Amino acid sequence: MLSKVEGGDGAASVCPQCCGMRIPEGCGGAADPPLGAHTVSVPAEVRGGSRPLQSARSLPGTPHCLKHFPVDLRTSMDGKYKEIAEELFCRSLAESEMRTAPYEFPEESPIEQLEERRQRLERQISQDVKLLKEQHEDRVDHIPKDREALLEREFQRVTISGEEKCGVPFTDLLDAAKSVVKALFLREKYMGLSLQSFCKTTARFLQELSEKPLETRSYEEVPETPVAADAAVHPPFAEQHPYEKWDPQSMPADLGFGLKMVDGVVHVYTKQDLTDKSTELDLPYPDLQEFIADMNFLMALIINGPIKSFCYRRLQYLSSKFQMHVLLNEMKELAAQKKVPHRDFYNIRKVDTHIHASSCMNQKHLLRFIKRAMKKHLDEIVHVEKGKEQTLKEVFETMNLTAYDLSVDTLDVHADRNTFHRFDKFNAKYNPIGESILREIFIKTDNRVSGKYFAHIIKEVMSDLEESKYQNAELRLSIYGRSRDEWDKLACWAVNHRVHSNNVRWLVQVPRLFDVYRTKKQLANFQEMLENIFLPLYEATIHPAQHPELHLFLEHVDGFDSVDDESKPEHHIFNLDSPLPGNWVEEDNPPYSYYLYYMYANMTVLNHLRRKRGFHTFVLRPHCGEAGPIHHLVSGFMVSENISHGLLLRKAPVLQYLYYLAQIGIAMSPLSNNSLFLSYHRNPLPEYLSRGLMVSLSTDDPLQFHFTKEPLMEEYSIATQVWKLSSCDMCELARNSVLMSGFSHKVPQPPPPRGPSGRLQ
Known about the structure:
The chain is of the alpha/beta class and 761 residues long. The protein has a domain at 361-446: Invariant Chain, Chain I (Irregular), CATH 4.10.800. The chain has 26 helices and 16 strands. Helix 20 links the parallel strand 13 (623-624) and strand 14 (642-645). Pathway: Purine metabolism; IMP biosynthesis via salvage pathway; IMP from AMP: step 1/1. One of its GO terms (biological process) is IMP salvage. Its EC number is 3.5.4.6.
């Protein structure tokens, strides 16, 4: 039951809270909205009664669907936001150790207090139910008998009646509602601009606030399709390997466009000859000044006292409501699960949404593969040392090792207690036996044998996934940005070795290592790194016939990731005074938000260009919030469709609540975090799950953290035992992983409607 607080004439309802007990059904349809059990009124001037000021630097070509966004809300507070944001940035720069926001959730209350609180809540609920029966007794008499039977079978629901102000003054509540809604509008703007997905339920409420007509087509009721007795239970597979018998002549035509990177962002022109007659295509990208102003607003938002109190109380309310739901309906949920035919936890789809290809195998698998290679390919030339070619036998002779000497302990690739808060030692674990030469030979795509061994071991992992039938993975491959031909080499590796599986999709990760390359004089400036990363993608989109392997490979790439040790101190603040990429020639590494902005801006232009060609688009899914300053999560909230880790959300109630309302996917890896940054029992995953954040379990690096050939099941098994998760909790985590992933849906005709990004909704 919703309660309203009237705010005068012309007021409209704002719903910044959630009434659902679980994650909304797919973030769309007619599911319970995640925006609130309580409604707070907002004056007309907040709802857009006055026309927002337009930025002088706003770009043409912004999609029509974005016109209702507060694209650039310039106010007299912008200067204050800037001061607050820069003060926070300076505070984070001054701390050399791992920095966290000065806010912690209190420890769990003693069991006596919890029991007393539960009893008071039960008494209040019983009184409310009695009152409701008296008020609506006449209506109950007219309910049909079959409807009464249906109500008896439904789960018990909890309703909160009466005026609720979340324990804060009404003016603070109003300000909090305005700020939270504005933050959601900002995310919707950046997701729409880059053709990434945005939670449909949240978008529906934002449409109501912006007084834009609802898109009812997306919310039509669809009758349940009967399942035939002989219906297939496995997903359809491609009959032909995508890298077999491809014809270079069948590639899409050359558009003849020209490319030029200006101030760190690629611009596309109608002709390759960039003369006065060549005009620039209208492909939108975010304005730098507007982006920094929006980031400053969010930085000021997360330290606002009343808003922190409001969001903290809402999060506590969600946790309590989930516990009440479990008390009332746990047995009914389990009974309902048992009635589903041919489905249990073992044979539902699960996606490992965060796993690195170079460590996707376990240590025993790698050991057996190395021994097998030493037995079959001992005389194959695998390395060149100072101009001299070396066979595999000679490489191991220099280490004074034989196949008999090798063991799991000798490889020494597993993380241990010495890697905690030591990312440098963790990176060293990627080198078998502590030798980087073995890493280059066996788990690199660009080496003397053209990545043959790495391709074979990846295909063995793919075979294990296909054998399991219900497990999928999104493997991450690296592009470093040191040279222009990295993309073509990676694509040739995948196509020539036929590294493909219907159970695997690719993400491309970009390590934030500009400072290393600049120190070695491999790059002149940061713009050169951006050109090496993005220009080959534009060329493959405009001239597929010139990059046929890359064109084929990109069809199986979901998006981009940004990786590195987040706990490393940053020596620069990203603001309007920051050097442009062409002028960034110093050896210091750019800050996290600097990397993310220019990756996002170039991906946005690329997505619009690929949509014009009918190709699929990409998303941004960086490592974010594992360690380091809290403003990493602010950048992730603005430009990322999903993130990995998100541990620091436990210390930022405002950001945690925003991530919940926007239903931003968070791929969490408790075993990885346990060895690097956070003990397992302190991991916030069960807390996030109970509050309704869209979290999933992932493995990160099975080579370092897992023991079995099914690392994802190992992750689920440990989480279930330690946190006492129910089968419903496990299935919900698996469902979230599917929703977060980039796997396409194989469906019969007619196809389901697609979102603005061209991805199935």
